[in-house]
Every structure is written in C-alpha cells, then in structure tokens.
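Inverse folding, one chain.
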C-alpha cells in the first residue's frame, strides 16, 4: 500500500524574498529570508514537487522560501499560490525596501514595484494585489544600488518587528496590521 502526503491547503502564503546560497545569507537583499527564518526557527523545510521552493506549514499558514534568485522569485511564488489555491490577497511577500530607512517597516497591499526586480517577478505571476511587508534597508551612500543591497545587513534592521507584523497579518487581518505597523514612529 502506497501512502500519499496530503497536499497543504493554507489560507495564507508567507514568502520571504532573497537569494539562495551562503554568499547572500547576511545581505540586505535577504531580509525576507531572515524574517521567514525568525518565524519558523529551525523547523524542517519540505520541498514542493515541481516548483523551485520549500515550505513549512503551521496551521493555516504556509511559510515559503524560493530556491530561485531574487529576480526570478515569481517563478516559485506564482506556481505555489496557484497549486494551493491561495488568492493573491492572502500572499504576503517580505522584502527589502530602499525607500525606508533602516529600522522602519511598512505594510501595503498592491502598488508599484519601485524598481524591485523580485517584486516585478512576483507581480508578473500574481498581479499587484498581494500584501507586502517592506523592511527598510535605506538608500545607498556612495555605492551603487546593487552593491548596497548585496552588502551586509545593518544593525537595527527590524527583522523581529517584521516577523511580528506577519503574525499580526495572519491572525488579525491586513487592515488591522497596517493600522498598527504603519503608525509606528
């Protein structure tokens, strides 16, 4: 008798954007991965058959980490959302944000990608109406944007606050979480 693993049917899909591999682990561009790690701890990741991503299911929330590079993030996020039937309004994407200073967070639904190639890739698959948890990494000073985002994450980057914002989104809804997080000084 062959046993089959039950396919997850999460209500929320929480995705941290980043680049795979040790070279990128502690960079500003990987704050999405860092927030996911803060949320799941050392739980074991499961592969998603036929999709370049891994997941951890906790209740009605699936935490996802793509195995693609940032610029191809949609190639993992889109197929996972489709496979599990998660509406874009329940897809939470955590990413680095140049237009916010280090230590600041912002929650937003929809809008422009502001040149962020990871978000552009996700939007190609889902449209723009997904939830964004923007983690401030600040604007570059004296270096290119690429050098900045691939540089080491700054002390004071609010990984714990972003993780708490994700928990609040999934427990209380986007609007309540936005009112709480976006009002912080």
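Residues assigned per position:
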């Amino acid at each position: 008798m062959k046993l089959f693993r039950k396919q997850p049917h999460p209500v929320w899909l929480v995705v941290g954007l980043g680049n795979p591999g040790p070279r990128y682990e502690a960079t500003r561009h990987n704050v999405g991965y860092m927030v996911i790690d803060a949320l799941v701890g050392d739980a074991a990741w499961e592969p998603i058959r036929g999709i370049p991503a891994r997941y951890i299911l906790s209740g009605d929330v699936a935490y996802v980490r793509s195995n693609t590079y940032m610029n191809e993030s949609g190639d993992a996020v889109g197929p996972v959302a489709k496979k599990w039937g998660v509406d874009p309004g329940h897809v939470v994407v955590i990413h680095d944000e140049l237009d916010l200073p280090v230590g600041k967070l912002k929650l937003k639904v929809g809008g422009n990608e502001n040149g962020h190639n990871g978000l552009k890739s996700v939007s190609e698959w889902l449209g723009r109406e997904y939830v964004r948890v923007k983690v401030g990494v600040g604007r570059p000073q004296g270096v290119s944007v690429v050098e900045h985002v691939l540089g080491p994450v700054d002390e004071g980057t609010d990984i714990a606050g972003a993780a708490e914002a994700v928990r609040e989104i999934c427990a209380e809804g986007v609007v309540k979480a936005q009112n709480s997080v976006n009002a912080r000084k």
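The two ends are 58 Å apart (CA to CA). The longest helix spans residues 159-172.
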